[in-house]
Amino acid sequence: MSLKKTYSFQIQPQFVDFQFRATMSSLGDILLTTAQFNADDNGFGLRRLNEMDCSWVLTRMAIEMNRFPEQYENIEVETWVEEVGRANTTRNFCIRDAKGEIIGNACSVWVFFDMKTRRAKDLQTLEGIHDFANGEEGLIDKPIKLGAVDGDEYDGFKVKYSDIDINGHVNSIRYIQWISDCFSLSCYRKYQVKRFEINYVHEMLYGDFVEIVGMKVEDNDFRFEIKKDDKIACRARVVLIPNTSTDL
Amino acid sequence: MSLKKTYSFQIQPQFVDFQFRATMSSLGDILLTTAQFNADDNGFGLRRLNEMDCSWVLTRMAIEMNRFPEQYENIEVETWVEEVGRANTTRNFCIRDAKGEIIGNACSVWVFFDMKTRRAKDLQTLEGIHDFANGEEGLIDKPIKLGAVDGDEYDGFKVKYSDIDINGHVNSIRYIQWISDCFSLSCYRKYQVKRFEINYVHEMLYGDFVEIVGMKVEDNDFRFEIKKDDKIACRARVVLIPNTSTDL
């Protein structure tokens, strides 16, 4: 049995930005959908975990894009579980275009979460899941623990109905969108995101006030922090490179 | 040749709200995707129109839901062109669940738009499109012209990167999301949207300040207006009914 599996997607019009390219948040969405499809195929999907009063919680993710797929492009996302530790499990992704060229890679880290105790649960207790870890590293650096950000306020607003997922928390993808929205259209005309890295720290709830602070640590290397009151909701790093599109 | 065609969708986790139900904006998205698939199948899709420096512009839409499909539900959207006038064309939708029961209906009105002159174009000049109009009415009232709203300010914020589509305007679906976000989680626990009706008036651009005003005209009948400065971007009507879910 092969431990790597590939899922196909088409970049729908609602996935693209003003430059016809998939947004980072829609790519994040595709990756989470891929993870869910593959976890279901392996027998460890959310539906099965929910029956055990457990869930998967995404704690870290890194996405690196060489090229952003455009509207109507077909992409293939290959995914596999690299390792299953006691505290978390690492799932990698490789994104290819229709020609088979690698256009991006991603790495995600997940915690096995007990919804009754509201705590992480030892993955040793999830029988059979270790058989799906193939030990194969991804093609990019794993997401690391990001440090505190002492930056300028970029944005502030309240969490709304459409931000909330079935767990009553802000949807993981929304944070990617909020951080992507810290850059202007003219920035996206000149640059594209090479690496987007995120640490999820505390969940945000309906009505919470979102405060986004950011700082430039080096040319083209930005750090962000999303806070509610004194708590950190998430931290992120965004590395830009010049826009590779030739027609701009 | 049948002039009605059906397209299948599955309600993905990112389409649902905190009650596991598809949001109105994700249903709007599915309807626009259906319209696009069917227009492509008929030979009058956006890609072909774009080659002629033309486009479809959605001017009005009404969606009525008897029941909101839940996460992972498979739905079928049947669509057909009712009529093609000189100024606009009407496309209807009927949404069924896996059992074949009708769970919702929608009606959309589109203008054939000349991107060079930035004006509507006579549909008489689009040869062959009239063959696709079957004259069959939809099962709900057509969207009408909504009147001015003299209401309270519900929300205000700036248009951001992720709101902008390939035409450089705010995405049509985003307005549905913004209006849906005017209701609280506790409102959605008690009520659900029976009818969502929207008129698109003026496009909004990156950096525009969005002001949302709303008023209750009758019990469970709300009107909204999204404005930028003195211009109306869109008007909407939202009719609520008690939440039909039995488990709440």
From TrEMBL, chains A, B:
InterPro entries associated with the record: Acyl-ACP_TE_C (IPR049427), Acyl-ACP_thioesterase_NHD (IPR002864), FATA/B (IPR045023), HotDog_dom_sf (IPR029069)
Family: Belongs to the acyl-ACP thioesterase family.
Full protein name: Acyl-ACP thioesterase
Residue ranges annotated for the Acyl-ACP thioesterase N-terminal hotdog domain, each copy included: 7-123
Gene3D superfamilies associated with the record: Hotdog Thioesterase
Domain of life: Bacteria
CDD domains: 4HBT
A single MF term (Gene Ontology): fatty acyl-[ACP] hydrolase activity
Domain Acyl-ACP thioesterase-like C-terminal, chain residue ranges per copy: 152-236
Pfam family, one: Acyl-ACP_TE_C
Keywords: Fatty acid biosynthesis, Fatty acid metabolism, Hydrolase, Lipid biosynthesis, Lipid metabolism, Transit peptide
